[in-house]
Amino acid sequence: MMAVQPPSSFPLPYPRPRPDCEQCMRLEGMGRAARAAHDRSRETDARVLLRHHYREVHENRATPGRPGC
Ligand SMILES: [Zn+2]
């Protein structure tokens, strides 16, 4: 049987990485690789980094000088 349900210990929503953003893709790939390796702490790291990056770059449009990536 395949038990690939996401663990409920991650309350953080996973932002959608932007395909056109190199950093998003890198962090998403990092999280995916970590998950494949069953490395939870590294997967969490990747998520946190992606979230942080996402908020800083893609959601905070009020910050001048950083249009996208
Ligand atoms: Zn990005």
Lay out the secondary structure:
Blueprint: H1 22-36, H2 40-59
Helix pairs in contact: 1-2
Bound molecules: zinc ion (ZN).
Describe, in plain words, how this protein is organized in 3D.
- The protein has 69 residues and is mainly alpha-helical.
- Helix content is 51%, strand content 0%.
- It contains two helices and no strands.
- The mean pLDDT is 80.
- The chain has helices at 22-36, 40-59.
- It has a domain at 22-59.
- Helix 1 runs antiparallel to helix 2 (40-59).
- It is elongated.
- It binds zinc ion (ZN).
- The site of zinc ion (ZN) has 8 residues, from helix 1 and helix 2.
Question: Short description, anyone?
Answer:
The chain is mainly α. Helices cover 51% and strands 0% of the residues.
Describe this protein with a few key phrases.
69 residues; mainly alpha; 2 helices; 51% helix; elongated; binds zinc ion
What overall geometry do the principal axes of the alpha carbons give? elongated
Number of strands: 0
Bound molecules: zinc ion
Rg calculated over all Cα atoms: 14 Å
Order of helical and strand elements: HH
Major sheet details: none
